[in-house]
Write a structure and sequence with these properties.
Layout lengths: L23 E2 L10 E7 L7 E7 L9 E10 L2 E5 L17
Parallel strand pairs: 1-5
Antiparallel strand pairs: 2-3, 3-4, 4-5
């Protein structure tokens, strides 16, 4: 069972770090949606647009384990990963394109 995550921004590894807390929002956010973070993908052609990938293991039936894919949103210096049953790449329509 997952124990949640914390977001700790820093420009480089030697910077001073500040723990901001769990960026997950929604049902079971305190348990990272019963999954564990695995990877963050940049959205091609967009600045500051990312998709978080979580793995949701079923230890009694590995074949039914799943991945959870959720958009990462930024508001000021805050990052949020909101639970969504469904979403599409159009959620990033208002994010600036890479020039």
């Amino acid at each position: 069972m997952s124990n949640g995550i914390s977001f700790t921004p820093g420009q480089v590894w030697k910077d001073t770090w500040e723990v901001i807390g769990n960026p997950c929002v929604g049902p079971n956010a305190e348990k990272t949606f019963f999954a564990q973070s695995a990877f963050v993908f940049p959205v091609a052609g967009k600045n500051d647009a990312y998709i978080a990938m979580f793995d949701m293991w079923n230890k009694t039936d590995i074949g039914s384990s799943r991945y959870v894919w959720l958009p990462i949103r930024f508001e000021g210096d805050r990052m949020t990963i909101k639970w969504m049953d469904e979403w599409g790449l159009s959620i990033f329509a208002n994010v600036n394109n890479i020039e």
